[in-house]
Amino acid sequence: MAGKIKAIRGMRDILPPETGRWQAVENAAREAFALYGYRELRLPLIERTELFARSIGADTDIVSKEMYTFPDRHGDSLTLRPEATASVLRAVLENRLDQGAGVKKLYTLGPMFRYERPQKGRYRQFHQINCEALGSDAPELDAEVILLLMEILKRVQLGTSRLLVNSLGCPECQKKFKEGLSLFLSQKQGLCEDCLRRRVTNPLRVLDCKSVHCKEILKDAPVLKDYLCPDCAVHYARVLSLLSRFGVTYEEQPRLVRGLDYYSRTAFEVVAVGLGAQDAVAGGGRYNGLAQELGGPELPAIGFAIGEDRLLEVLPPELGQEKNRKIFLAALGPAARDQAFSLLQTLRREGVPGEMDFGERSLKAQMSLADRLGAAYTVILGDRELETGKATLRRMATGDQQEVSLSLLPMVLAGL
Ligand code: HAM
Predict the structure, then answer these.
(1) Which residue is closest in CA terms to ligand 1's atom 14?
(2) Taking CA 256 as the corner, what is the angle to CA 286 and CA 303, rounded to the nearest 5 degrees?
(3) pLDDT tens for residues 366-385?
(4) What is the DSSP letter of 160?
């Protein structure tokens, strides 16, 4: 016998009833996006490799070791998207969505792919709720985007979490900071191999190193905040003061750099309690220079992505569970089955979810099927019921039964 084919490591099936929780999160996000004036984009899952290499940065873990990259049949190098921001910007520039006045507010949901070592909260195919606001450098927009993120997390009842904020400054601040950091690192012994290389190519990336020893060294490293130019410092202070004004609790995290190179000025992450090592449920920031990096006009922008897989791990299990109104119609004999089939369609027209079995099973078998399908009530219809014009209505949780006149049945069931 041939062996069974299984899902690829790090990729998983999300099955019912768990999918109901996913829908609840996505619906909550869509409602919040609409409230803040965002519209949806649906983008390809595959892009030219160059798009990610140029935007995320060659020295990042994502580009240097985590991308699913392959040649297509023409030999073009393609990549399964590891994140959505680069694709959103590509689509915005390609479709000229940046034209016209006002901030362009866009969101997109869907799977991302990174070849990371799978573990709790870390998958090779994972899902993001991605938000991007393009066309303004105003600190009000930074605050608004963070408020929107917090609104979504509140709507899905995320428990204890921390919002970490930092400013990465503009390219000028970053240049000076990198020099300062480079100098500091050159005086230190024992950096890991990656960091020894990055110390020269892109010292900011050293701050993101996961090695315990490097982390120890970095405890005394200079911080970006001390290198901000006056404009960036004012921008950052305004963002923080707006967050305070709207009651958002944040923690300044002077060493937060994020894992992608395109950020400037505001950067933030939300970490949730109870997730272990992979505790970031969302991350984002400004990427003012990215549009130009991709050959477009100046287009200051900011956004975030929520990691749905991780978020769902910490949300209450009852999330998305609406009142169960499902009816199962247990019919015995052809005449009753025929009647039940009509009733089923009437119920659905009334918005009542219902199911029946089309086979010729015993009442006992049909009742256990009703249980398995999670019906709240079962209607029993047989020859006797058709004769008397009354059906038996059984409440599955308690076993209580009552007789209901067939003519009133749709109305009674719709009101349950
Ligand atoms: P990121 O921090 O790389 O940012 O990813 C955002 C979130 O995606 C993370 O906080 C985490 O919850 C989730 N995530 C990332 N990798 C995995 C994984 N392997 N398994 C499960 N969840 C994961 C970005 O992707 C940026 N594009 C966010 C952004 C949008 N910045 C501006 N606009």
Answers:
(1) 307
(2) 25
(3) 999 999 999 999 999 999 99
(4) S
Q: Residue 292 carries which side chain, given as an amino acid letter?
A: Q
Q: Are residues 263 and 137 in the same domain?
A: yes
Ligand 1 neighbourhood includes 122 CB (under 6 angstroms): yes
Instruction: With CA atoms as reference, report the closest residue to 102 among 132, 142, 145, 134.
Output: 134
Q: Rounded CA gap, 108 and 114, in Å?
A: 18
Closest CA to 329 of 297, 355, 351: 355
User: Are residues 343 and 258 both part of a single domain?
Assistant: no
pLDDT (mean) for 190-217: 88
282 lines ligand 1 (CB under 6 A): yes
Based on the fold, state whether residues 54 and 107 are members of the same structural domain: yes
Question: Which of 289, 312, 335 lies at the terminal end of a domain, its last residue?
Answer: 312
And the tokens for 51?
């798009």
Identify the pLDDT of residue 278: 85
Asked whether residue 375 is assigned to any structural domain, the reply reads yes
* Alpha-carbon span 80 to 93, nearest angstrom: 20
The CATH number assigned to the domain holding 33 equals: 3.30.930.10
Q: Please report whether residue 351 resides in a domain.
A: yes
Q: Is 116 in the pocket of ligand 1 (CB under 6 A)?
A: yes
Q: Quick one: pLDDT band at residue 208, thresholds 50, 70, 90?
A: confident
CATH of the domain at 385: 3.40.50.800
H or E stretch covering 279: none
Q: What separation in Å is there between the alpha carbon of 107 and the centre of ligand 1?
A: 14
Token code pair at residue 167: 């400013």
Residues with Cβ within 8 Å of 311's Cβ and at least 6 positions away in sequence, in order, are 25, 153, 156, 158, 272, 281, 282
Confirm whether pTM is higher than 0.70: yes
Q: Could you tell me which residues are beta bridge partners of residue 134? A: 104, 301
Please tell me if the CB atom of residue 82 comes closer than 6 angstroms to any atom of ligand 1.
no
Quick one: average pLDDT of 302-327?
93
Let me know if residue 59 belongs to a domain. yes
Per residue in 19-76, pLDDT (tens digit) is 999 999 999 999 999 999 999 999 999 999 999 999 999 889 999 999 999 999 999 9
Q: How far apart are CA 158 and CA 23, in angstroms?
A: 15
Q: How far apart are alpha carbons 223 and 157 in whole angstroms?
A: 34
Instruction: Give the residue with greater pLDDT, 274 vs 227.
Output: 227
The predicted-structure confidence for 162-178, as pLDDT tens digits, reads as follows 999 999 999 999 999 99
